[in-house]
Design goal:
This is Relaxase/mobilization nuclease domain-containing protein. The protein is α+β, with helices and mostly antiparallel strands and 550 residues long. The protein is built from 19 helices and eight strands.
Length: 550
């Protein structure tokens, strides 16, 4: 999806932004990267144009205009505005988006929304931090150069006159986002609703803090590995990330605000405060609360209260489906077994839940051995899990331990087969995406290559258009290798095939997730039965197993 970012700059040195657009810079420090001779390194792929100015004399022309109107002379004045349009990385692979098309979109967007301003429009194809997403930089001098026709999005009369500053308001930013969404939908690019509040709100400051933290963690882990030690943590979490994951985990099983608050405090040591209809959270290492609005809409009061209601309703429906008479009848017919005593005791607490958990081995629990109160709490929890396990066995009609193991083996086989089917569909989808990408690349650069074939001086033409020709030849080579009859595949047929595969992938994922969850549930039941019967548990932990099959 295309997103829009705005940066207001008070830097009077307009040449710095030119250098940033044309030369390699460190993404963390924003300082230019130099080669072994101390020279600036040009960016590998970029397209730059100027509007109402020459792109290579942008800095001088801006200073001349400022001097003419005696504006942008004080330190506190905003000298330029920097807008960044970042396209979804999938647009290049799935929709054939090229740097040239992105540059055309950027030019159209600039002329429409920043008329009369001296503007630089520059497209980078490498993506931020090597992400590969095509993005467009639009830099405008804050001072308007020419008088223009009054537009609907202009709030003041002077917003269309030369010599006045660029005026950014909340309504104007809404207009800019709507304009970008309209263009992306017209061009059939991936797009989300930029006007809707973000479900998970991540600011630039948090994003860069996460990157710096991950970089430091990776360096520390490399040192540990070199010393022969296994790192305990491989993924860095910001404080807001920690809050989000804890809130999601607690909210998924809470039926009320009280449950949610107790679980956050007991499991994560996070305090919840409700003030004037707003949820705020206190991280264990902070002294100041963070509001749900700063985390995203899925962490605010309205969304969470609706989720609590759904959880309570779901829990109530599950209770209503429990047939106690069925359990009693099957219990009476079952043959004497070491577990029957536990079954008879468990009938009185048949508030069965589907979220079975493993019975904890007290001998392996260090905390339980050190704390008697915690050990009693674990014993009580184990009794509840044993009761739920016995009820599960009765409900599903497992007469023997072998029948339970046979069922587990069967579901495990189905999970493995469904995973292979899903992987096969994903492989086919990947091939189709490659064909769409190279077909789009072929069609986008074909006009330039046709001019190359007609050019009298082909060597000079190739030097002037090396990127377009290279991309065309690479796409042509790939498509010839993939085609059995040597014909160019139809983009319409490729996209139709892709839609078909996407539907197949959705169904395959649904089947695989069903058997995967079923396998996990039976694995827990088998482990708990072994604990109830006092048998040694040699079963592989489900976390490791699920990692192996995911």
């Amino acid at each position: 999806m295309a997103i829009l970012k705005h940066i207001a700059s008070k830097n009077a040195n307009y040449a710095e932004i030119q250098r940033y657009l044309m030369f390699e810079h460190d993404e963390d420090t924003n300082k230019p990267i130099l080669d072994e001779n101390g020279e600036l390194i040009p960016r590998k792929e970029y397209i730059m144009d100027g509007i109402n100015c020459d792109p290579f004399t942008f800095d001088m022309e801006c200073r001349e205009l400022n001097a003419l109107y005696r504006k942008n002379e004080s330190y506190d004045e905003i000298k330029s505005h920097h807008y960044i349009i970042s396209f979804d990385p999938k647009d290049a692979a799935e929709n054939g988006l090229t740097g040239e098309q992105a540059q055309q979109i950027g030019m159209e967007y600039t002329k429409k929304n920043f008329p009369g301003h001296q503007s630089l429009v520059c497209t980078h194809m490498d993506g931020h931090n090597g992400s590969g997403n095509i993005h467009v930089h639009i830099v405008i001098n804050s001072l308007r150069k020419f008088d223009v026709e009054r537009q609907d999005f202009m709030d003041r009369a002077c917003d269309s006159r030369a010599g006045y500053k660029h005026h950014v308001t909340k309504d104007y930013l809404i207009h800019l986002k709507q304009s970008l969404m309209d263009i992306c939908r017209r061009e059939h690019l991936h797009q989300i609703d930029l006007l809707a509040p973000a479900e998970k709100k991540i600011t630039d400051r948090e994003y860069h803090a996460g990157r710096r933290g991950q970089k430091k963690l990776d360096e520390r882990n490399r040192q540990l590995l070199s010393d022969g030690l296994a790192p305990r943590k491989t993924v860095f979490q910001t404080q807001k990330d920690f809050l989000r994951s804890a809130i999601e985990d607690a909210a998924a099983v809470s039926c009320s605000q009280e449950d949610f608050q107790a679980l956050l405090l007991g499991k994560y040591n996070i305090r919840l405060k409700v003030s004037r209809g707003r949820f705020s959270y206190l991280h264990p290492e902070r002294n100041k609360y963070i509001t749900g609005r700063m985390l995203g809409t899925h962490y605010e009061e309205d969304y969470l209260r609706e989720l609590f209601k759904e959880n309570a309703k779901s829990k109530e429906n599950k209770k209503k489906t429990v047939d106690v008479e069925k359990y009693n009848t099957e219990s009476e017919k079952s043959a004497p077994h070491p577990s029957n005593l536990l079954q008879e005791e468990a009938v009185s607490i048949l508030f069965i839940k589907s979220d079975l958990r493993l019975v904890v081995d007290l001998q392996d629990c260090v905390k339980a051995q050190q704390n008697a109160a915690y050990a009693n709490k674990v014993k009580l929890s184990n009794l509840k899990e044993m009761a739920k396990t016995v009820a599960y066995i009765q409900e599903h009609g497992y007469d023997t331990r072998d029948s339970l193991e046979d069922s587990f083996s069967e579901i495990k086989s189905h999970a493995s087969t469904s995973r292979k089917d899903l992987k096969s569909v994903e492989d086919n989808l990947r091939k189709i995406n490659e064909q769409i990408h190279y077909t789009g690349q072929y069609l986008a650069n074909k006009p330039v290559y046709q001019k190359f074939l007609k050019a009298k001086n082909k060597g000079q033409f190739r030097q002037e258009h090396p990127t377009e020709i290279a991309l065309y030849e690479a796409a042509r080579k790939f498509l010839k290798e993939q085609s059995a009859d040597g014909k160019l595949p139809s983009m319409k047929l490729l996209k139709a095939e892709k839609e078909k595969l996407l539907q197949q992938k959705k169904e395959a994922q649904k089947t695989y997730h069903y058997y995967r969850d079923y396998q996990k549930e039976l694995n827990t039941v088998c482990s708990n039965v072994d604990k109830i019967l006092g048998q040694p548990n040699t079963r592989q932990p489900e976390k490791q197993k699920s990692a192996d099959i995911s």
